Amino acid sequence: RDHAMATVAFTPNIQRHVACPEMDAPGATVREVLEYVFAANPRARGYVLDDQSALRKHMIIFVDGEAIRDRVGLGDAVSATSRVFVFQALSGG
């Protein structure tokens, strides 16, 4: 597969608020793959990122089962075969 890309998926509790289908996205970092997804889905950006473009406090992103470390710069590495999951940490609201 020449054009292998990371898969970005949003959990159902986020989908209730913002429709964001699972997408394949190019990029070498969490920021790059998310920017690709958000370009197609601007509403999801405001839900996941704050006005400083950092991850909102109640959001968690996992890359291949590991929680990301860089919640501000979103510089964690992503490979072409990675699965990126965006979770909402809080229940209720």
Structure, described:
- The chain is an alpha+beta fold and 93 residues long.
- 24% of the residues lie in helices and 23% in strands.
- The protein contains three helices and five strands, in the order βαβααβββ.
- It has helices spanning 12-15, 30-40, 42-48, and strands at residues 6-10, 23-25, 59-63, 66-67, 83-88.
- Strands 2-1-5-3-4 form a five-stranded mixed β-sheet.
- A hairpin with a 2-residue loop joins strand 3 and strand 4.
- Helix 2 (30-40) packs across helix 3.
- The radius of gyration is 12 Å and the shape is globular.
- The mean pLDDT is 92.
Secondary structure topology:
Elements: E1 6-10, H1 12-15, E2 23-25, H2 30-40, H3 42-48, E3 59-63, E4 66-67, E5 83-88
Parallel strand pairs: 1-5
Antiparallel strand pairs: 1-2, 3-4, 3-5
Helix pairs in contact: 2-3
Describe, in short, the structure shown:
By secondary structure, the chain is α+β, with helices and mostly antiparallel strands.
